[in-house]
Specification:
This protein is α+β, with helices and mostly antiparallel strands. The protein is about 25% helix and about 30% strand. It has one domain: Roll (Hypothetical upf0131 protein ytfp).
Length: about 230
């Protein structure tokens, strides 16, 4: 959160790019070095269930990630941080940190931004799954926020809007079927995606291990954000 009355910067690399959910003063194309965007988190809430987990994006170690940096006015910094903790820390799979990000416009200045990094010790950490496995999980998963496929396509669309290519995500969509992007991703769950999910669910779910229910070890992050 803002310290000493300064504005707060927030780094968005997934759904925060198209649905931030908070008021901001400006949004800029930005790069975070040292972490990469990847489908490394099993989702049992927003994009999947315990019976059929989905996959959502996290920032994992290595490489670099381009996304959107939002500047939030100091007066709204505390409320914005509370909102983000409630949204991102449903089961504590992320570590809240402040990391240096480079703003890509103009003179490329650096700011310290709030970012959510994956917690590798969390049972929902999926690690580096083969692309075919990622595609199989995303193809047939759906949670409270909609279809996993819509999440993938919305991410790719909004990356394209700011001129970012994410080739690994593009390859996952190619495995699923690139024609799906013509119809999906325009709402939380498009009719086309709903049909795709129904067909995919006739197949056996991709095995991803048994995720524990009610693991409360990381829920302190809802309060502390550490």
């Amino acid at each position: 959160m803002a310290v000493g009355g300064h504005d707060l910067w927030v780094f968005g690399y997934g759904s925060l790019m198209w649905r931030p959910g908070f008021v901001y003063e400006e949004a800029q194309h930005a790069r975070l070095v040292g972490y990469r965007r990847c489908f490394c988190i099993y989702s049992v809430y927003h994009r999947g269930t315990h019976e059929r987990p989905g996959l959502v994006l996290g920032l994992d170690r290595g490489g670099a990630c381009e996304g959107i940096a939002y500047r939030v006015a100091a007066a709204r910094a505390e409320a914005t941080t509370r909102y983000l903790r409630a949204r991102e820390q449903v089961n504590g799979v992320y570590r809240e940190t402040h990391a240096p990000v480079e703003l890509m416009a103009g003179r490329h200045r650096e700011v310290l931004a709030l970012a959510y990094i994956v917690e590798r010790a969390h049972p929902n950490y999926a690690g580096q799954l083969p692309l075919a496995v990622q595609a199989g999980i995303i193809h047939g998963s759906c949670g409270r926020s909609g279809a996993n496929l819509d999440y993938l396509i919305s991410t790719l669309r909004h990356l394209a809007e700011v001129g970012i290519r994410e080739r690994e995500l593009e390859r996952i969509l190619a495995v699923i079927g690139p024609h799906a992007a013509r119809f999906a991703g325009r709402q939380s769950q498009s009719p086309h995606t709903a049909a795709v999910v129904r067909v995919a669910r006739r197949r056996k779910p991709v095995r991803c291990g048994k995720l524990p229910r009610g693991d409360r070890r990381f829920l302190y992050r809802l309060r502390l954000g550490v």
